[in-house]
Amino acid sequence: MSAPQRSGGRGPADLRPVTIEPDFMRSATGSALISEGDTRVICTASVQESVPRWMAGRGTGWATAEYGMLPASTGDRKQRDVTKGRPDGRTVEIQRLIGRSLRGVIDFAALGERTVYIDCDVLQADGGTRCASITGAYVALELACRRLVEEGKLERLPLTGTVAAVSCGIVGGVPLLDLDYPEDSSAEVDANVVMTGDGGLVEVQATAE
Question: E strands within the chain?
Answer without folding.
Answer: 18-22, 30-36, 39-48, 62-69, 115-124, 163-171, 174-177, 189-196, 201-208
